[in-house]
């Protein structure tokens, strides 16, 4: 019985230490205003970063995705650009108004070939008319 209690205490301490270490690694720091945002993120799930941005700025988002992709990096710029960079691996729609930024996050982007529509090939230009041909049609200067 005593051995089980010691084992339980040791296991609880290890779990707590592991969670504390994981929490210490994950970090979001936000500074500035909506026109000049500075965000430093270290190993935080995207949802936590968006929640922090939502609490600090007038950013609203919706998603059915878990948004658990870890984010790390330093992001600078207007709120709409920083949000778009954060969502780089997702398909999303963004609406920017004077009241703030609304984001609908659809899903993680599918990795595959990107298909772009190319402009139709221009038809070949006709060759310029010679002076003799122009004179033969009555368009030339030698009439």
Unreliable sequence segments: 10-24
* CATH level 1 class label: Alpha Beta
Helical fraction: 25-40%
Distance between the termini: 121 Å
Largest sheet entry: 3 strands, antiparallel
Number of domains: 1
If helices are DSSP runs of H or I spanning 4 or more residues, what is the number of helices? Answer: 4
What is the alpha-carbon Rg in Å? Answer: 30 Å
Task: Describe what is shown at a glance.
Helix content is 35%, strand content 33%. By secondary structure, it is of the alpha+beta class.
Task: Walk me through what this model shows.
- With 143 residues, the chain is α+β, with helices and mostly antiparallel strands.
- The protein has a single domain (2-108), classed as 3-Layer(bab) Sandwich (Phage tail protein beta-alpha-beta fold).
- 35% of the residues lie in helices and 33% in strands.
- The chain has helices at 2-25, 46-56, 79-86, 131-137, and strands at residues 27-33, 36-45, 59-63, 70-77, 90-97, 100-108.
- The chain has a three-stranded antiparallel beta sheet with strand order 1-2-4. A three-stranded mixed beta sheet has the order 3-6-5, with helices on one face.
- The protein is elongated, with a radius of gyration of 30 Å.
- The N and C termini lie far apart (121 Å).
